[in-house]
Write a structure and sequence with these properties.
Length: about 230
């Protein structure tokens, strides 16, 4: 989980995660220098030895998730935002999917959750798409809906400096390596509110983002091909 000034909703997310974890599981939290009560709230949970907190002050969202991933130890890794709510069957459903598949990554759906009205609206991912080209043009890879086997880390880390979105990068690399498993079933509530990090980009920025992603993928092909 990557956190930054998430005091308003983080407790709901942590509670929805911890109730699904076993004794050997872990919740890794990387904080980007929160100035509100986020860390104070997290510290209240740290009597639970499964929770570990790492600092990554003011380095941005992509770096914050990288810091969290570097400190993960277990074989299956779930990405988590700080303000969603996981459904009670999310962990087991995803684990079953990965254990029964040769793929490295699972992408499931979610329901948009408008906190001001407590209304569960449309699905987060309108259309799931296989293929690198389609997901460069319009990515369906939302980090909060992704989980993957630890083996994928050796291909995606460190994140290339020009990669604008960590979740799109992880999804595209998984597509190139062994493909992904799509689960249409919603397994979380994705909270929509005024402080969401994801924002629409102007057209010139969208073009630049796609060019950067293509460049990084092309430059990484040699690395992927050389790994056993």
């Amino acid at each position: 989980m990557a956190t930054y000034n998430g005091e308003k909703f983080i407790k709901f997310q942590i509670d929805s995660i911890l109730c699904q974890l076993g004794t050997q599981d872990e919740l890794i939290i990387s904080d980007d220098g929160s100035s509100d009560a986020t860390l104070e709230i997290v510290k209240e949970y740290q009597k639970d030895e499964r929770i570990q907190v790492f600092a990554n002050p003011r380095k941005g969202v992509v770096s914050n998730f990288e810091n969290a991933l570097i400190n993960c130890n277990n074989d299956i890794i779930f990405l988590s935002d700080q303000d969603d709510v996981w459904f009670p069957n999310k962990v087991q459903a995803v684990k079953n999917c990965l254990e029964n598949s040769k793929k490295l990554l699972v992408l499931h759906n979610g329901l948009n959750f408008y906190s001001s009205t407590e209304y569960c609206g449309d699905t987060l991912i309108k259309k799931m798409r296989h293929g690198v080209v389609l997901n460069i043009m319009r990515s369906c890879y939302w980090g909060c809906c992704m989980a993957f086997k630890r083996d994928l880390l050796r291909f995606v880390l460190p994140f290339p400096p020009q990669v604008p979105a960590h979740d799109q990068w992880i999804g595209l690399v998984a597509e190139k390596i062994k493909g992904t498993v799509f689960v249409e079933q919603p397994l979380l509530l994705h909270r929509r509110h005024e402080f969401n990090v994801s924002r629409p980009l102007p057209i010139c920025k969208k073009i630049q983002v796609r060019c950067d992603m293509i460049k990084e993928l092309l430059s990484s092909m040699r690395k992927f091909n050389s790994l056993p």
